[in-house]
Amino acid sequence: MPEHSPPVSTRRYEAYSHQALKAEVEAGNDPGEAGVIGGQWDELAGRFHESAQALTALLEHSREHWSGAGGEALRGVLTQAARWSGEVAGVSTSVGGSVSAQAEIAARAKAEMPEPVEYDPAGMIRAAAASGNLLALAGLPAAMEETKAAAEAARQKAIDVLNARDAALRDAIPVQQSFTPPPHLTSP
């Protein structure tokens, strides 16, 4: 089965507004629900693992009761079924772990996303002029520069959060992403 590498994000978050970056990390981000889905994959893996163990036990016990060509044929079928159940359990465990890891990554990105800092130069000028306070007018260039720097620093942090999230989500994708078909358990 060919392995595929996960695609690399080509998003250029630098072109987004801070509000759009915040919306990107919050929209549809329900880590609790994703955690439930990860748990369901783990449950499925547990069931397949139990099936593999039961088939292996049946295989071992068959040696006592069935011999000859019929017994060997039965053991061959049970071996294939047990092996496949074990493989599917492994893939299910991997997918469950990946979903849970991705839920944690999304939650971390949501928690680390800074609030946008509003920078409205025209509004700042209007507010300072309307105040009639000469000190506010005199300090306006420094206040504007400080607010602009704070807004840009928060936006850059938001960009960094999303780039880190995308890289971590990519790294959390399981290596084996598909199930092998079940074996034929009967003669053609």
* Number of DSSP helical runs: 6
Enumerate the spans where pLDDT stays under 50 for 5 or more consecutive residues.
Answer: none
DSSP, total strands: 0
- What is the helix content? over 70%
Amino- and carboxy-terminal Cα gap = 24 Å
Overall SS class: mainly alpha
Question: Can you offer a commentary on this structure?
Answer:
The chain has 188 residues and is mostly helical. Helix content is 73%, strand content 0%. The protein has one domain (13-171): Ferritin (Up-down Bundle), CATH 1.20.1260.20. It contains six helices and no strands. It is rod-shaped. It comes from Amycolatopsis albispora. This is PE-PGRS family protein. InterPro entries: PPE_sf.
Summarize the structure.
This is PE-PGRS family protein. The protein has 188 residues and is mainly α.
What descriptors fit this protein?
6 helices, mainly alpha, 188 residues, rod-shaped
Helices and strands in order:
Layout (H helix, E strand, L loop, with lengths): L17 H9 L4 H35 L2 H45 L8 H11 L2 H5 L1 H32 L17
